[in-house]
Amino acid sequence: MNEQLIFHLDVNSAYLSWEAAYRLQHGSKIDLREIPSAVGGDPASRHGIILAKSTPAKKFNIKTGETLFSARQKCPNLVIVPPNYQLYMKCSNALLDVLKEYSPKIQRFSVDECFMDMTHTAKLWGDPLRLAYQIKERIKKELGFTVSIGISTCKLLAKMASDLKKPDGVTTLFHEEIAEKMWPLPVENLFMVGPATKKKLSSYGIHTIGQLAQANPDFLAKRLKSHGILIWNYANGRENSPVRSTAIAIKGIGNSTTTPFDVDNWREVKMVLLSLVETIGSRLRQGGWAAGLVAVSFKTSTFESFSHQGKLSTPADCTNEIYQKACELLSECWYGQPLRHLGVRVGELCTNDFIQLSLLNWDREKLSRLDKTVDALRTKYGSKVIVRSSFLHSGIKPLTGGIIEDYPLMSSIL
Amino acid sequence: MKILMRPIEIIAWFTSEGVPRPLKFRISSNGSTSVVKVDKIIFKTEEKIAGNKMLVFRCQSLIEGRLRDFELKYECATCRWFLYKM
Fold first, then answer.
1. A7, A411, A339: which is closest to A173 by C-alpha?
2. How far is CA A212 from the centre of its chain?
3. Chain B, window 9-68: residues with a beta carbon less than 8 angstroms from a chain A beta carbon
4. DSSP state of A190
5. What is this structure's pTM?
6. Chain A, 33-92: which have a CB under 8 Å from a chain B CB?
7. Judgement on whether residues A66 and A197 belong to the same structural domain of the protein
8. Are A286 and A323 contacting, i.e. CB atoms less than 8 angstroms apart?
9. Do A143 and B84 touch (CB under 8 A)?
């Protein structure tokens, strides 16, 4: 058999299950998974959105992404717990440690999803279906949470398969089963088909994955370009990317934030930009990169989005330089409307070990030494040890962006 | 046995292989503190629920004239001990 054999593991209601398991281990008498409960929000400010929900909570029609306020209206007894990203990283790592015992090629697709390359392991572990059940039960017993496993010959089908039986299930989705198991599903269930694509496909009369699979590829190419061909191939189960155990090289770094209040004056906007650039700067220097391109984006309080980008004369990794550029870019396109969301992104990355000195860059060496010192202090004592004085008593956080270091967010690249 | 999960102060000894063994612990309840000496360790297991490694010790001691079984838990990451069940 030259074909691959891929498993896809998906932790059921990850944030909630992990919190539930942790609490049970610490003597809680209630299992959060058995009552209407959800993970979300910031307990201090009582704002926030639902990040994960339990099965009983689904019965109250609570949706991931809705505000805690509206969730509480649907279910007044809802137990809401704050997110704990350190715990989630620990759980994700523990899961990976178990999986590494079965295959050397594991791809952590997101904090709660993994691909395992099980090609040619039949001689080692026997029947793959039986092995999948073994792994599932082991994780349930040892780690205390349930997973759904999908089995197929490519990552796309394995990922679609794991969705079919939730929670605590194992499903196969080989090519010969596509028509029976995958084609009847609504087209938005297909990986890479989001609300925008779904709307377009609906207008062409394509409502199920099967209809998409049988549509004319030239028609899709004309209307949806390469994305159309991609999803057409996916609907037919054609996908062959390998299970990647190393990450793809990054092309850019960005941070953005939604402010808790509308920002409409330069002083505050500049502070938010600075706090975003502080995080970006430290991420850049940590990766050994310098950036040649800076982009700012913002969303007004009426949800209109704008973005503007510009190149730096020479690639830089210095917080001050990127900040100056970001302010310059924003001043070119912002007319003072109240803003709710601001973002800064840097691109055109290159290594920072050789940085050209330019006549126009004041004291670049001094600033670079300052940046390095601040980075070292923050790594050793935490990010709050030293902050820019303009943030004192301002109500704006001195560093914004990111969750915790190296937190694996889901990607759209399989 | 009832689940308590009360944090306790404890004296334990560690073997040269790094395996802890509880000796005696002090627990405060309703304002008064009592010291319990661990007479026998019946078994020790390891659990890794939610990726959090904890050692579980099932112990037996003579407490106020009665032979009682209880479970102590040691959370490796935080180095904390708890009276889990009694």
1. A7
2. 27
3. 47-52, 54
4. S
5. 0.82
6. 87, 90-92
7. no
8. no
9. no
Q: Are residues A9 and A26 in the same domain?
A: yes
Whether residues A146 and A58 fall in one domain: yes
Cα–Cα distance between A303 and A296 in angstroms, integer?
Answer: 16
> How many Å is the Cα radius of gyration of chain B?
13
Chain B contact for A24 (CB, 8 A cutoff): yes
* Strands of the sheet with B3-7, listed across from one edge: B3-7, B80-85, B66-75, B54-63, B40-47
Task: Please give the tally of structural domains in chain A.
Answer: 3
- Spatial separation of the C-alpha atoms in residues A46 and A42, rounded to whole Å: 6
Each residue's pLDDT tens digit, A206-238: 999 999 999 999 999 999 999 999 999 999 999
* Residue A77, domain extent: 1-178
The residues that bridge with A361 in the sheet, in sequence order, are none
The single residue listed with the structure tokens 């659990």 is B47
Task: Write out the two tokens for A62.
Answer: 């609570």
- Is A268 within a domain? yes
**Is B79 part of the contact surface with chain A (CB cutoff 8 Å)?**
no
Active site residue A278: no
Tell me the H-state helices in A266-363. 266-287, 319-333
Q: Which residue in chain B is spatially nearest to A89 when comparing CA positions?
A: B51
Tokens of A14: 């990850």
Give the tens place of pLDDT for each residue, A5-34.
999 999 999 999 999 999 999 989 999 999
- Strand ranges (E), A153-219: 169-172
Structure token digits, residue B84: 């889990």
